[in-house]
Design goal:
Blueprint (H helix, E strand, L loop, with lengths): L1 E5 L4 E8 L2 E9 L6 H18 L4 E5 L12 H22 L4 E3 L1 H9 L10 H13 L16
Parallel strand pairs: 1-4, 4-5
Antiparallel strand pairs: 1-2, 2-3
Helix pairs in contact: 1-2
Length: 152
């Protein structure tokens, strides 16, 4: 089974895949936690619960540096994301004894969709999300995501 993580500073999306089937998915909301230590402790507890529930053999996380285009992100945001991303990847290694593989967002889209998004689509995240709904037939579970549909 593969644990996929989309690590951000406020919301972490996760998915569990097994033999090209989506087994579980959800979000980990760390936005209301006061500091990086509280956030890390909270995520670590969830990683242990996922370990108890699933036989994870591979971990894939989004390569966070691919998210930033020149001039669009403040350096303070990049630093905080780098910290939390590195620490959560380290905790994944500690919890599962598996080295996470960092995957470029375009590579991840190609792995799931067999192609990247076309320039005819204005919003690449919406394009991917709509295709994920079709591929994995998750329409009845969308309420779990609330307003964080692009984080899974």
């Amino acid at each position: 089974m593969i644990l996929g993580l989309d690590i951000n500073t406020k919301i972490i999306g996760y998915s569990i895949l097994d033999n090209d089937q989506l087994i579980d998915f959800g979000i980990i909301n760390i936005s209301k936690l006061s500091d990086i230590f509280d956030k890390l402790s909270f995520v670590k507890d969830i990683l242990f619960s996922l370990k108890d529930k699933y036989s994870i053999t591979k971990i894939a996380t989004e390569d966070f540096l691919a998210k930033f285009a020149a001039g669009r992100s403040r350096i303070s945001t990049i630093i905080v994301l780098a910290q939390i991303n590195s620490l959560i990847n380290y905790e994944c290694f500690n919890v599962f004894n598996i080295k996470p593989e960092l995957i470029n967002v375009l590579k991840a889209r190609k792995l799931i969709l067999g192609k990247s998004w076309s320039k005819e689509y204005v919003n690449s995240k919406e394009f991917v999300f709509q295709n994920i709904i079709k591929i994995f037939d998750i329409k009845d579970k969308l309420d779990l995501l609330k307003n964080n549909k692009y984080d899974v």
